[in-house]
Structure formats: structure tokens, C-alpha cells
Amino acid sequence: SQQGEEDPQALSIQEGENATMNCSYKTSINNLQWYRQNSGRGLVHLILIRSNEREKHSGRLRVTLDTSKKSSSLLITASRAADTASYFCATDGGYQKVTFGIGTKLQVIP
Amino acid sequence: DVKVTQSSRYLVKRTGEKVFLECVQDMDHENMFWYRQDPGLGLRLIYFSYDVKMKEKGDIPEGYSVSREKKERFSLILESASTNQTSMYLCASSLRIPSTDTQYFGPGTRLTVL
């Protein structure tokens, strides 16, 4: 099954800086989603972007999708310590399934 | 707010034991899922269910079974636990198919098999 691959696997930034993480995938998709996971907890849905959309915003989050390059990026602006978490992209994994990447671990240093 | 609860946060079992992990959601969702999460491997789908008494194998069903007798409850069963099933288990639910809709996750059960 196809799996999104996040890049980088780990990222450490200072509070107030922007954080960018990327997701690449192999086959055509209908939608791509981003989720956040705080340490030792379940995942929380952040945003869904459709294949016919190029950019989407939600608060301090900005997601872009380039279907020609089969890639997406998640930008968190003006990061806060509370943004420290792992971030996963999820792509269509076949009917009724999604496939998650291995995640980017973000650390925001106060 | 959707709430997905899992029966235990931490569980320690012995090799060969039968293990039940319970998941309950309170939003009348059709779809429910069991994933396991391991470092460096991300989340992998074990089983999912799109209706009561219906189940479908995910990517790694070997060594597991599931039960969905009621819409709100989805159980994961390890018939004979083995050490390689030590992992974080996450349950999720969604109203529509997950590629088009939000999945709501429980807090996870960290299972250790000795």
C-alpha cells in the first residue's frame, strides 16, 4: 500500500519561528490529510486538502498540495511550545482506508 | 464532541495470554478502526469495520481478530499474545469513509507482552 513519507523525521525550532514539514506519496490521491499527535496520545485531525485544491489555511496552519510532484507541505507559523508534537500525513489507502506516514517529530523550544 | 475511549491506557500481559482491547465511540459512527503504532513504522491498520458485524482486514491482520457486535463498540482480540505484539494500539472512528472525513482517535493502549 502506498505510504506518505514525511520529511524531515525530526525538527527542532525556537518558539516564534515557522515550522515546515513535507509529505511525499507515490500514487494519485483524492485527498490528503494532516494529523497531530501529542506524546503518548491519540491523533488529532488538523486539515484535509482535496486533490483539486492547491492551498488551504486553518488558523496558523497552511497546507499546500502539488499533485504533479506528489507532495504536500504543512507550515505552522509563529510556533508555540504547545505545537511540540508529531505530525502525520494521511493519504488514500484504498477504499475505506487511509495510509499514514511515519511522521515528523517537531520540538518547539521556549 | 466525539469521544473515543479505550479500555486501558497501559496493559501488561504474558506470552500466550488472550488479550481483549475494547474501544467505544459515542457519536454513532459507521466506521471503526484498529491501528498499531511502532517507532519508525508509523501507524499500520490492523482491521476496520464499516458496519455492525462487518469486518475487513487491514494491512497487518495476522495474529489479531476483531468483534463488532454493537455499533459503538469495536474490540481487538489477540488470541495468543506474543512479544512482537508489544506496541501502542490506537482505535479510531469516522462517520464517512476516512479518506474524505476526519478520524477521531482514542488515547491509545500501550500493550507490553512479556
Describe what is shown at a glance.
Chain A is mostly beta strands and 110 residues long.
Give a written overview of the molecule:
The complex is a heterodimer of chains A (110) and B (114). Chain A has strands spanning 5-7, 10-14, 19-24, 31-37, 43-50, 55-58, 61-66, 71-76, 85-92, 98-100, 104-109. Chain A has 110 residues and is mainly beta. In chain A, a hairpin with a 2-residue loop joins strand 6 and strand 7 (61-66). The A-B interface holds A 1, 3, 30-31, 33, 35, 40-45, 48, 88, 90-93, 95-103 and B 4, 31, 35, 40-43, 45, 48, 50, 56, 58-59, 88, 90, 92, 97-100, 102-108, 110.
How would you describe this structure in keywords?
heterodimer; A: mainly beta; 6-stranded mixed sheet; 5-stranded antiparallel sheet; B: mainly beta; 7-stranded mixed sheet; 4-stranded antiparallel sheet
Topology:
The complex is a heterodimer of chains A (110) and B (114).
Chain A: E1 5-7, E2 10-14, E3 19-24, E4 31-37, E5 43-50, E6 55-58, E7 61-66, E8 71-76, E9 85-92, E10 98-100, E11 104-109
Parallel strand pairs in A: 2-11
Antiparallel strand pairs in A: 1-3, 3-8, 4-5, 4-9, 6-7, 7-8, 9-10, 9-11
Chain B: E1 4-6, E2 10-13, E3 19-25, E4 31-38, E5 42-49, E6 56-57, E7 64-70, E8 73-78, E9 87-94, E10 104-105, E11 109-113
Parallel strand pairs in B: 2-11
Antiparallel strand pairs in B: 1-3, 3-8, 4-5, 4-9, 5-6, 7-8, 9-10, 9-11
Q: If you compute it from the alpha carbons, what radius of gyration of chain B comes out, rounded to the nearest whole angstrom?
A: 13 Å
Proportion of residues in helical segments of chain B: under 10%
Number of helices of chain B: 0
Structural class of chain A: mainly beta
Radius of gyration over C-alpha positions of chain A, nearest whole angstrom:
13 Å
Number of strands of chain A: 11
Ranges of chain B where pLDDT stays below 50 over 5 or more residues in a row are none
Bin the strand percentage of chain A. over 45%
Terminus-to-terminus distance of chain A: 39 Å
Please outline the major beta sheet of chain B: 7 strands, mixed
Most extensive interface, chain pair and sizes: A-B, 27 and 28 residues
What's the total count of β strands of chain B?
A: 11
Range of strand content of chain B: over 45%
Overall shape of chain A: it is globular
- Main structural class of chain B: mainly beta
SSE order of chain A, one letter for each helix or strand? EEEEEEEEEEE
Please give the share of residues in helix of chain A: under 10%
DSSP summary: helix tally of chain A: 0
Low-pLDDT segments of chain A? none
